[in-house]
Specification:
single chain; 332 residues; alpha/beta; Rossmann fold; seven-stranded antiparallel beta sheet; five-stranded parallel beta sheet; 12 strands
Length: 332
């Protein structure tokens, strides 16, 4: 299986370059200073023409750009960035005050990799930039969901899929946390994971909720700050599977074992949870050792299992939205 990314070793040797496209020269000044201290080359362009010219001359790893830069229209802007870039794997982060879901979806359709809502906290944006600059693999679901299983090696996972389907279909009211815990535990066991978690998260929101975790049946409905998990934000935004093959080689996760002392973590695999073609959360699979992306067969079956849990996850997400709307109404 081939990937559109160089090895982590090769990427680490490349000089990291970021270009910021923004009308205001001061908006990203703090972020720029922080990046430079981290030995990242940072350039700036205040119009679309200058931005396109620079990315056609230098192999930037990332472009963070104002959605309305240059007045040529966001779709055309992102299309030109992608087609003109000297680096075909350039990551594009869109910055905008227009945070309606339709605008976020438009950014995805245009080819952006991330969406930053204004106003933003500089530290949070810095973390997301460093995340995209670090070694990781991504795959669109269309690359594996329509494939036939190539052999019988994954029959164990197919049986797991059937077990999860049967378990969830027979879940009685009030037993959802128990059923979801059993499901993520079975996935974790099949993948050699020491922690597999189901998290609901709505695009554009800063908080999510852990619905189930394989290593603790009592750990459910636990709120988390998504600012600490850029890989979750990335998957919720893009709808792609993300693999961080070696947490020690990733700028943001190389000290994860110092922070998560209860279990050793070597790699992270994150799946989108889809309900009616909308990403409503993620399934995170943490493994104790560095690992490669699973086979197409395994990805397809794991995605199917993940989507089986989507209906119950969506109920929880809707309840959160209702609660949030009530809180907002009460304060107005």
């Amino acid at each position: 299986m081939e990937w559109n990314m160089k090895s982590a070793e090769t990427k680490e040797k490349m000089p990291k370059r970021v270009i910021l496209g923004e009308m205001s020269a001061t908006k990203f000044s703090i972020i720029s200073d922080w990046l430079k201290k981290d030995n990242v080359v940072v350039d700036f362009a205040n119009d679309a023409e200058g931005l396109i010219e620079k990315i056609s001359e230098e192999p930037y790893q990332l472009c963070m750009v104002n959605w309305l830069l240059g007045g040529i229209g966001p779709f055309e802007l992102i299309r030109k960035i992608r087609s003109s870039s000297l680096n075909p794997e350039i990551k594009i982060m869109v910055v905008s005050r227009q945070v309606q879901k339709v605008n976020i979806q438009n950014a995805i359709t245009a080819g952006a990799h991330d969406f930053v809502a204004e106003p933003f906290e500089n530290e949070v944006v810095l973390k997301r930039i460093l995340y995209h600059l670090s070694p990781l693999s991504t795959m669109d679901a269309s690359e594996y969901e329509d494939r036939e299983l190539s052999n019988n090696d994954e029959l164990g996972l197919v049986n797991l899929c059937l077990e999860v389907c049967e378990k969830l279909s027979r879940t009685e009211r009030g037993q959802e946390p128990h059923s979801l815990h059993e499901a993520v535990s079975k996935i974790g066991l099949a993948m050699g994971s020491n922690r597999t978690s189901l998290v609901i998260a709505d695009v554009g929101q800063s908080t999510g909720v852990v619905l189930a975790s394989s290593d603790d049946p009592s750990f459910h409905n636990f709120p988390i700050s998504l600012d600490k998990y850029p890989e979750i934000q990335h998957v919720v935004f893009s709808g792609k599977v993300v693999l961080i093959p070696d947490v020690t080689a990733n700028t943001l996760t190389h000290e994860i074992n110092k922070k998560v002392k209860s279990i050793p973590i070597g790699s992270l695999l994150v799946f989108p949870v889809r309900y009616q073609n909308e990403v409503i959360g993620v399934l995170t699979i943490r493994r104790p050792k560095a690992s490669e992306m699973p086979s197409y067969d395994k990805l397809r079956v794991l995605q199917a299992i993940t989507n089986l849990m989507a209906a119950q996850s969506n109920i929880q997400l809707l309840l959160r939205k209702i609660y949030r709307d009530q809180q907002r109404t009460g304060t107005e």
